[in-house]
Design a protein that fits this description.
The protein has 170 residues and is mainly alpha-helical. The protein has one domain (36-160). Helices cover 83% and strands 0% of the residues. The protein contains 6 helices and no strands. The protein has helices at 3-57, 59-71, 77-104, 109-123, 126-135, 141-160. The radius of gyration is 25 Å and the shape is elongated.
Length: 170
Amino acid sequence: MNWDAAGAIGEIVGAIAVVASLMYLAVQIRAQVREVRLTATRELSRDYRSLIAELSRDDAMYSLYRQAIKDYDGMPDEERTRIHLYFYTRLFGIHEQFHLHRSEGDIDPVFMASIERRFAEFSRLPGAAMWWRRNREIYSETFRRDIDKIFLESAEQESKSGNVPIDPAT
């Protein structure tokens, strides 16, 4: 065997090793992406369940929530301020996190679709639209577009059902 043949065999073995390393790396990256998606989904699911649990355990907060979803603008200032903080930090705050994770592709799409359906139900409530109309400017443009779309689709469904929709952006 001459040196040229030995060099060619070495290059082939080296190329095979590089391809094998790249394949292994691709498998590891895919597994890591899957784990990130599961972790984000798990954390957001926990936050969402915590949000619901808060309302079910705290009678005063539940009462404020019930008033707010019916007529946010008609609430006394102190109560409206308290529920505003809840909507801002918890309700819309969690959905802002959903939006961020979805835009980065690191949340399970089936879980995200479920959350969007739940949020669409919430968006049909008159007080939710009132709150969003008053406070939408505090959020990023992309988040506003997504939430506006949900509110408008809900308003269209309400209109088809004979209920008077509330345009959240006006």
